[in-house]
Amino acid sequence: MSLIDIAGLEDDRLNKLLQQLILALEILKSDKIVDNKRVLCQINQSTADIIKEIAMRIIGLILILFSCEALALELPVDWRLPTEKEMTTESPLKQARIESDFNQDGKLDHAFLLKSVNYPGEGLVVYVSTATGYEWQILDRVEWGEEYAEAGLKMRIKIARPGRYNTACALGYWTCGPEEPAVLELKQVAIYQNRFDGAIAIWFWDKGDNQFKKIWLGTSGDR
């Protein structure tokens, strides 16, 4: 698997890849039998711990490199890319950028998790193609307060695949209605957002209104 292949993985698959690496190191340390052959290990505890730390930093750097194409773009005013530390401070490792043709116009769109330069906070920001060219749109933002000035990324994003999704109203959070169906019939790829508070939403492109719309799926505890 190349670095490009790894960079394209979603964050859950990256975590699995890292877990496999750590498991391999544990096997080496414990001198277990693998495929009926004893693995002779000269790696001590401190060396293995160092390798684990290096592995985590490599994954973090890969995630940042995956976002660094954004450096060719002029980011929206008051926003910046997250640092390596901000992406890896809290588990699981964060993916700061996803891309797909969200509005189905044949052009690639980009969704970013960006940090504010004016206050401790972050936002879900998209770079989407329009009839007159690309433009930045801020879909969601949160301000933490000065006591969380060093906080890492809290949100998580990934691609939402076409399919049927039970919504928050179907789970009893509130009454369903015309703009809040019990089941979201997603026809095209969209943005799956897991917020800092565990609330989960899908941002999809509404062709009729020509804009992104959000529908809540409940919380991570409902999954």
Rg over CA atoms, rounded to whole Å, is 20 Å
Low-confidence stretches: 1-9, 35-43
- Averaged pLDDT: 76
Cα distance spanning the termini: 31 Å
- Spell out the helices and strands N to C: HHEEHEHEEEEEEEEEE
Q: What class, by secondary structure content?
A: alpha+beta
Largest sheet: 5 strands, antiparallel
- Tell me the strand percentage band: 25-35%
Shape: globular
Q: How many distinct helices?
A: 4
State the share of residues found in helices, binned by percent. 10-25%
How many β-strands, per DSSP? 13
Topology:
Blueprint: H1 3-7, H2 11-30, E1 33-34, E2 37-38, H3 45-67, E3 79-80, H4 84-88, E4 97-100, E5 109-116, E6 121-130, E7 133-143, E8 156-160, E9 163-166, E10 183-186, E11 190-194, E12 199-206, E13 211-219
Antiparallel strand pairs: 1-2, 3-5, 4-5, 5-6, 6-7, 8-11, 9-10, 11-12, 12-13
Offer a quick outline of the entry.
The chain is built from four helices and 13 strands.
Please give a structural write-up.
The protein is an alpha+beta fold. The chain has a domain at 3-68. It has helices at 3-7, 11-30, 45-67, 84-88; strands at residues 33-34, 37-38, 79-80, 97-100, 109-116, 121-130, 133-143, 156-160, 163-166, 183-186, 190-194, 199-206, 211-219. The model is unreliable at 1-9 and 35-43 (pLDDT under 50).
